Amino acid sequence: MNYLIGIDVGTSATKTVLFDEKGNVVSSVSQEYPLYQPHNGWAEQKPEDWRDAVLKTLKEVVAESGVSGEDVKGIGISGQMHGLVMLDEAGEVIRPSIIWCDQRTGAEVEDMLSIMPRERWIEITANPPLTGWTAAKILWVRKNEPENYKRCRHILLPKDYIRYILTGEFATEVSDASGMQLLDVAGRCWSEEVLEKLDIPREWLGKMYESCQVTGQLLPEIATATGLTTDTKVVGGAGDNAAAAVGTGVVKDGTAFTTIGSSGVVFAHSSQITIDPKGRVHTCCCAVPGAWHVMGVTQGAGLSLKWFKDNFCQDYVAQAEEAGVDVYDLINRDIEKIPVGSDRLVYLPYLMGERTPHLDPDCRGVFFGLSAIHTKAHLLRAVMEGVSYSLADCNDILKEMGVQVDQMMACGGGGKSPIWRQMLSDLYDCQVKTVHQSEGPALGVAILAGVGCGIYESVEKACEQLISVNKCSEPAGENVKKYYEYHQLYKRLYGNLKESYKELAAL
Predict the structure, then answer these.
(1) Bridge partners of 12?
(2) What pLDDT, in 10s, does the model give residues 262-276?
(3) Which residues are catalytic?
(4) β-pairing, 85-87 with 432-435?
(5) First vs last C-alpha separation in the chain
(6) HEC profile of 150-181
């Protein structure tokens, strides 16, 4: 039998999964690494940590499986989007990667808008200049770290740095490159106009591929170190959300998914390019050749719950360790007892600023309505509801744009929570489904690898064969009404606080 590997270079960990050609998990290994925040609103990681995690998990996943390296035909790579990896002439990392949730580049976004009108940015890159995206980070390094910029010879995204480690190739693919603000998204190629306006050398950027195209094969030293062979092909892969779409079967019109990882995303497939002229949601090339997706992004989704758990839930952590259960299972158990709306407590999930619909790097998290009746369980439920309100904002904009969705899938760590899925179903007022296949991005890029290696006819055909629905949450009538009212209040709170956020940022 043929086998495929999916590597997902996430924010908290790298997960490497070995699948057989029927989509079954043979073995899976994860490796965590730290996030660094040198200043408020900054977020960095060391590419070397990703490299070490990938090589370690690749070796272990092959060794644990007992599968011959010769039978592993292809590797797909997924990863966190927008991160800036700068390499020197020798291919060595110059500085830590400025990752997706970093918000330091407000001044550089203004610089970009002075270089070219907002409307032209949207026309070419399908999105307005954004603080979290790669182009502004390049300008920040040029302005603030000229010695590092002078050394730069290669600019890569996180997963594409891993491709370089595995194959020696400097390459990328259309879905992840769409989030750099350097791509002609309609044309699926680098924009010469943008590169000229920003004075970024074209030769610094990798060769462009579609997500299922073969970009290289394993280097001899990598094959030896991991138990694979130099015949193992590495395909373009995809950004984490485009990969998750394939892994949940969202590869044709009318399909969409919500993922709750560190960030949260509402993602809809489209065979036609559809751009929001207001720039509130993002249009990118998707992993299906010749197609696009529209997505809204909540910066602090699962990140909000993890932040609260890490800082205020040591009792839950201790109980979980003692009982040998997942800490989030205990949290779900307790918040189920709290009513819809958390007894008039509303959380704004802006720990790292916000993208959809506000595009505001200065807004910050808020608990609104705190009173003496509220317990830790109330705050936990309010966090999950606040993230859900933000995701509902994203979904509302897709509807406004005429993107019709017949089915909503749920994935990511938060998608495993039946309570969170129910919140989404009530707020979207539609069914929210999960699939039996739980590996999301890793499965998605493994499928892309299978297409590139000729194991599957196409991405769509592969998903028809491999992806099947598991659970379904139905909207609960009374909850739909209550959540609608809370959501309207939630939306007004940002407007009420907008100027105060700017004052806070200036202090």
Answers:
(1) none
(2) 889 999 999 999 999
(3) 240
(4) unpaired
(5) 62
(6) HHCCEEECHHHHHHHHHHCCCEEEHHHHHHHC
